[in-house]
Amino acid sequence: MASPPSRTAVAILGATGSIGTATADVLQHLGAPWKAVALSAHTRLPELAAMCQQLQPEMVAATCDHAFQSFDKGCLPSACQLLAGPQSLVEIAQSPHVDTVVAAVVGSAGLMSTLAAAESGKRVALANKEALVVAGNLLSNAIRQGQGELIPVDSEHSAIFQAIQAGRPTEVERIILTASGGPFRTWSRDRIASATVEDALDHPTWQMGRKITIDSATMMNKALEVIEAHWLFDLPADKIEVVVHPQSVIHSMVEFVDGSVIAQLSPPDMRLPIQYALTFPDRETCPCPKMNWSETMRFDFEPADRDRFPALELGWEVIRGGGTCGAVLNAANEAAVELFLDGQIAFTEIVQGCRRILEEHHFSPNPSLEELLRLDRWARQEIKRWASLV
Ligand code: NDP
Ligand code: MG
User: Fold this and answer.
1) Do 285 and 191 touch, CB atoms closer than 8 A?
2) What would the mean pLDDT of 364-374 be, rounded to a whole number?
3) Which ligand is nearest to the CA of 68?
4) Which domains are delineated in the chain?
């Protein structure tokens, strides 16, 4: 019998981010033969250089031209090959020296490298949910054609990926994605309307990058995750549900046709789903804290409030709409979040703008990659134009 392909040569795309640094931690914990063979960063190049000193990768990519110009290349280890520009992510994703690509770039900037990794038959440990939201169909085809693997890193999808192994695909009744509810879970509609950037960045249970933290506050993150689940598990919109679980310990659940519900639990720490995406189907000891069953604890569940969090509905709408809807929603949201962080629009205008751009866009049912990229640019421009008018 042929031995399974090696997975231990890992590229971390988006190495300086929250998921990227957690992945580096996991690789150091796992030790040899696991190795970070390639790292990338966009603007935080001094941090990247420090990671290179520690992890000694073969390749390193700096994707932001502006940051690259002022970067002191002398602080990289001498054996490390330096690549520059956005295309360098694709080069790394295709490299024969790489077995596993951890897709941890934020936003649709991660799409081309995720596609390239899939086409090259790599294991893709996917944190970059935006790639699936934008081009779920193309990415699923690329995985099939390249004979690669797409393993979720997102904690909810990792939980479902683990729980779903308890039955056959035809036996799945529905999946239930849990949501922390974010910082505004208990806030009134009026209070949410006047939320500041600081309020929105104050997440109760997870430490994450700024973009996903704002997405958690609007609950757009859960809408993106509903779409992500649709593509990962090949499920229609009406088999995907969302429930608020403020403790963020039950990471999601699968209900089977007989009524059994299988859940995955662990203290909130992304290193566990990252490590599982690397080692699957094996499990290894993990540096994360474990559940403490000698303490009294409680798990709460509440229905998700689609009135106070109108972003949620967009998840199911985009699945039903298909075609170009995911790309347009994602780009509008990325641009709107930036505008909010820049103080140019109010918190509730993030979702208002997204809905408007989605409704206005020129829909196509079976778009090519070029069409998706064009609409991504269009939606970003439109939301800026809309923001200057509101
Ligand atoms: P961060 O903002 O912390 O990190 C993003 C990474 O992407 C950084 O390395 C950044 O480089 C790089 N980057 C940013 N813009 C570009 C660009 N235009 N081109 C290339 N690289 C770029 O984000 P997170 O780690 O929080 O999130 C990463 C992905 O993982 C997102 O898709 C998010 O939705 C997903 N995710 C995150 C979770 C979390 O707990 N953080 C949980 C589940 C999913 P630099 O910093 O050098 O500028
Ligand atoms: Mg998640």
Assistant:
1) no
2) 98
3) 1
4) 9-153 (3.40.50.720), 158-321 (no CATH)
Rounded (10°) CA dihedral 245, 241, 310, 363: 150
175-193 pLDDT, tens digit per residue, is 999 999 999 999 999 999 9
Task: Give the model's pLDDT for residue 204.
Answer: 86
Between CA 294 and CA 173, with CA 301 as vertex, the angle to 5 degrees is 110
Rounded to the nearest angstrom, the distance between the alpha carbon of 154 and the centre of ligand 2 is: 5
* Partners of residue 124 on adjacent β-strands: 101, 150
Proximal ligand: closest to the CA of 126: 1
Calculate how far, in angstroms, residue 268's C-alpha sits from the geometric centre of ligand 1: 18
Does the reported pTM lie above 0.90?
yes
Rounded CA-CA distance 122/93 in Å is 8
List 137's β-bridge partners, or say none.
Answer: none
pLDDT value, residue 381:
98
CA 325 / ligand 2 centre spacing (Å): 21
| Residues ≥6 apart with Cβ < 8 Å to 285 | none
pLDDT score recorded for residue 1: 63
Atom of ligand 1 nearest to the CA of 213: 26
Residues with CB under 6 A from ligand 1: 14-20, 41-44, 63, 104-106, 109, 127-130, 154, 206, 208-209, 211-212, 270
Q: What is the pLDDT of residue 3?
A: 76
